[in-house]
């Protein structure tokens, strides 16, 4: 099977194009030519956060939508549940379905994520025909 792997019960031996025509929503369709992204989901007994590179938030154009209830270590943002939804919706809006693996990391209370700096949404400064994005990280 070329770049696709399809699993649909007794129709797994058909070509993906035929499978897609027969079933508009296959139960499993994996694109093997796309690199698998790995995200870590951190959790303690009261809350959880998805670890996402800050550069990814800027690339998707959602860095300014992240709340101060998320955290950062300067390289990664640790998105709370609501901000995690914003991240996935932004990926979907850019037609970037997520062939990814999410690794769950559960820790005792409190999670080390809680000791990181709060994420402060970047502020746009307009000057001389350009827009400069300034990201501010501070502890609360």
Structure summary:
The protein is α+β, with helices and mostly antiparallel strands and 140 residues long. Helices cover 19% and strands 39% of the residues.
Describe this structure in words.
This protein is 19% helix and 39% strand. The N terminus is likely disordered. With 140 residues, the chain is an alpha+beta fold. A 7-stranded mixed sheet has the order 7-3-4-6-5-8-9. It has a two-stranded antiparallel sheet with strand order 1-2. The protein folds into 2 domains: 33 residues, no CATH class; 103 residues, no CATH class.
Fill in the keyword field for this structure.
single chain, 140 residues, alpha+beta, 2 domains, seven-stranded mixed sheet, two-stranded antiparallel sheet, 3 helices, 9 strands, 19% helix, globular, disordered N terminus
Estimate the mean pLDDT confidence.
73
Number of strands: 9
Class inferred from helices and paired strands:
alpha+beta
In order across it, which strands form the biggest sheet?
Answer: 7-3-4-6-5-8-9
Taken in chain order, the helices and strands follow as EHEEEHEEHEEE
Roughly how many Å is the radius of gyration? 19 Å
Q: Report the sheet with the most strands, covering strand number, pairing sense and barrel closure.
A: 7 strands, mixed
Number of domains: 2
Poorly predicted spans: 1-32, 127-132
Report helical residue fraction. Answer: 10-25%
Count of alpha and pi helical runs: 3
Shape: globular
Give the percentage of residues in beta strands.
Answer: 35-45%
> How far apart are the first and last residues' alpha carbons, in Å?
53 Å
């Amino acid at each position: 099977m070329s770049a696709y792997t399809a699993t649909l019960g007794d129709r797994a031996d058909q070509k993906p194009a035929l499978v897609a025509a027969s079933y508009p929503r296959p139960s499993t369709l994996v694109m093997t030519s796309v690199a698998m992204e790995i995200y870590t989901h951190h959790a303690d007994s009261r809350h959880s956060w998805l670890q996402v590179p800050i550069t990814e938030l800027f690339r998707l154009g959602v860095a300014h939508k992240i709340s101060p209830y998320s955290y950062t270590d300067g390289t990664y943002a640790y998105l709370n549940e609501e901000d995690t939804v914003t991240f996935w919706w932004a990926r979907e809006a850019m037609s970037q379905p997520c062939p990814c693996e999410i690794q769950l990391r559960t820790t005792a209370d409190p999670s080390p994520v809680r000791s990181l700096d709060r994420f402060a949404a970047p502020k746009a400064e307009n000057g001389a025909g350009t827009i400069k994005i300034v990201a501010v990280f501070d502890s609360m």
